[in-house]
Automatic annotation (TrEMBL):
Regions crossing the membrane: none
Name of the protein described by the UniProt record: EAL domain-containing protein
Domain (EAL) ranges: 1-260
Residues of the full protein shown: 348 to 607 of 610
Organism: Tumidithrix elongata BACA0141
Length: 260
């Protein structure tokens, strides 16, 4: 098994899948979105996690094609769910963009082509990028963010708190949502007693985001205590195993129907 070689074949042999993890409103328990997460079903190795192959894809440049596939597949799924569920399906799908993808000079053309081909409008999409993606592309980010906004595509800062500690870009670039990295969530153990530095950081991030006009998603929420604490400090949204794992489309559909 040679990961790099097999990764090239994976695209043409259609070994990638998207799973969808529900994003939940902490106030109401309602479904407010899904994050699309890539899965590689390798013919002999079984499921290989993205943490293993996304870095290789970044190094080899394959990420451009894989990212293109992901975005197209997510948009096709949006279209299929819109046709199947009509008004019942109205939430955005979050798609992860890698650092390299965000810096592709023709990113906007690629996005426009996919939207046109699938017949999906930008207001059904949210793109997740890291702080690094923005900071590494500080000059081009202004224009890209403006163009995304014209298409009503929202942006979410993923893994917030683990990348650049520079907060400069936060007021410079209009981003809808901050997603707090799960390393900050995993240390929340008790909604009343927890006074560790890390949960103070969570509280500070929520306050910062709100003051900048952003909403907040906590990722990696695994316990009721964490969910209650986050709700108490005003964090709007959450995703994590406590609510739902990333699901194949057929199971995600059951959540769409329930709306919870
Ligand atoms: O699904 P999982 O929890 O294993 O994801 C691990 C990491 O892989 C996460 O950081 C996630 O952002 C990233 N990831 C998942 N799907 C995609 C994708 O389609 N494109 C990119 N660039 N990263 C992804
Ligand atoms: O984009 P990002 O790296 O944040 O992707 C989310 C990753 O976290 C995915 O790989 C997903 O499978 C994983 N994940 C989702 N919910 C949980 C959770 O509650 N706990 C942990 N440990 N991982 C989670
Ligand atoms: Mn993400
Ligand atoms: Na993350």
């Amino acid at each position: 098994f040679e990961l790099q070689t097999d990764l090239r074949l994976a695209l043409e042999q259609q070994q990638f899948l998207l799973y969808y993890q529900p994003v939940i409103s902490l106030a109401t328990g309602d479904l407010v979105g899904f994050e699309a997460l890539i899965r590689w079903n390798h013919p002999t190795e079984g499921f290989i996690p993205p943490s293993q192959f996304i870095p290789v894809a970044e190094e080899t440049g394959l990420i451009a094609q894989i990212g293109e596939w992901t975005l197209r597949e997510a948009c096709s799924q949006i279209k299929a769910w819109q046709e199947k569920f009509e008004k019942l399906f109205s939430v955005r799908i979050n798609v992860n963009l890698s650092v390299k993808q965000f810096s592709l000079p023709d990113l906007m053309d690629r996005i426009d082509r996919i939207l046109a081909d699938t017949g999906v409008s930008g207001n059904m999409l949210k793109l997740e990028i890291t702080e690094t993606a923005i900071m590494d592309n500080a000059e081009s980010a202004d224009l890209i963010i403006k163009q995304l906004r014209e298409r009503e595509i929202q942006l979410c800062i993923d893994d917030f708190g683990t990348g650049y500690s520079s907060l400069n870009y936060l007021h410079r670039f209009p981003v809808k949502t901050l997603k707090i990295d799960r390393s900050f969530i995993s240390i929340i153990e008790d909604s009343n007693l927890d006074r560790s530095n890390k949960s103070l950081i969570v509280q500070a991030i929520v306050t910062l985001a709100h003051q900048l006009g952003m909403d907040v998603v906590a990722e990696g929420v695994e316990t009721l205590e964490q969910a209650m604490y986050l709700k108490q400090i005003g964090c709007e949204f959450a995703q994590g195993y406590y609510f739902e794992k990333p699901l194949p489309p057929t199971l995600a559909e059951k959540i769409i129907i329930k709306g919870k």
